[in-house]
Amino acid sequence: MQNATARLLDSGNVAALIAGLVALVLVLNRGTWLPLRNVVTIAHEGGHAVVALVSGRKLNGIRLHSDTSGLTVSTGRAHGPGMVFTLLAGYPAVSLLGLGGAWLVTADRERWMLWGCIVLLALLLLAVRNAFGVVSVLLTGGAIGAVSWLASPSWQALCAALLCWFLLIGGIRPISELGRKRRRGRAGDSDADQLARLTGVAGGVWMFLWFLTGLASLLVGGYWLLLMPQV
């Protein structure tokens, strides 16, 4: 415990804290959030796609739209666990991806984290079915690739930490946005509402579970990032 506290207070980890503050500003500021929200949408739809495949459904394609919304289409049973888990996966996928990345950064494996993102984006690209989606995935992968190939190890660690913070914090904001839309009656076909119709469990319960997952991921992942090796 004392060693962990000492590392948290180490001046070398101020960079990790600054990266977290920058990510917070990027998420809270409307001007930066709107374009960067596409990164969150990519992770969200990727979560739907992965769970759809794992649950035995056929993945038909993914569409990413300029308004930062997305759609993952899969075929299989209209009811049952496969459909439920597919719908359930989108929102937690963003936070859990950030949590996994934070673990790698803390273990001094930020290059693995960056290359893992590139591989996942390349696989996702195979399923994207519209031009805007292709451009979004290519731009995101290109930015991460540039850091992996051109940046020094210190900058790789800092950029990886920034990406993790962004996913951890950015994974929570869409849940609050969905809550506002549902209160205004503008999200009748959201993941939460579809889950409610399939399971009989209120959409608000699913949103609460997503929020708890996001908050827990942020607390654990943030703690890990603040323990990352000096940059």
From TrEMBL:
InterPro entries named in the record: Peptidase_M50B-like (IPR049500)
Keywords recorded for this protein, A-Z: Membrane, Transmembrane, Transmembrane helix
Keyword Transmembrane helix: yes
Keyword flag Glycoprotein: no
Membrane spanning stretches: 12-29, 83-105, 112-135, 155-175, 195-226
Domain of life: Bacteria
The protein, known as: Peptidase M50B-like protein
